[in-house]
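Can anyone check this?
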Amino acid sequence: MTPTNFDAYAFSRQPGYDEQATRAAFAQAVPLRTVVVYCYDPRAVGIPGAVAREFGDEFPGEVVLDDDGNKAASTANVFEVVVAGGRAVDALRSVTVAQHLFGIENVVVVHHSHCGATSFTADGIVAAYQREQGVDISGLYPEESVCISDYESSLRHDVALLRDSAGTPRNVNLYGYFYDIDDESLTKVVENRGVSGQGAAE
């Protein structure tokens, strides 16, 4: 394998790097409006498209090339955060970064029917890890975010978790939806509107 200078691809390692200017360029390159948090189950692949239709957004969008043919931007305004069970605890840092780079209006958490996260309990996975891996994970994750025992409760919890996070701007609207993987329908369960005029990117 030929050695590669990976630093050549890092914005922060370029001569004359200006963090504020780079941030502004990112915000112009991608018209991000909505972050959707959903499960990595392959059956749930239709969720971001369904959310885009629900909110009048564009997904997957088109990649925009610059004059040199480089992939410089995108027309998509829905970003995916794909995690086990679509739990918000795994998406907190991604929401903060999305706001910083692009500015966002909505965060949508979606839990889907027949999800694997409903097939086990928090106690069950802790016991299994102790038995099978020989490690105690009981304090590794917040118990209420480990599995899904009730869809409405899990969505309400996740929306509240996002709202309580200092990394979620106050002006962002938060939603919790249930997605039926068979008929590909979305049902809104939670809506938590943002506070106008607060938390916008500068």
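Reply from J.R.: I decoded it. The chain is about 30% helix and 20% strand.
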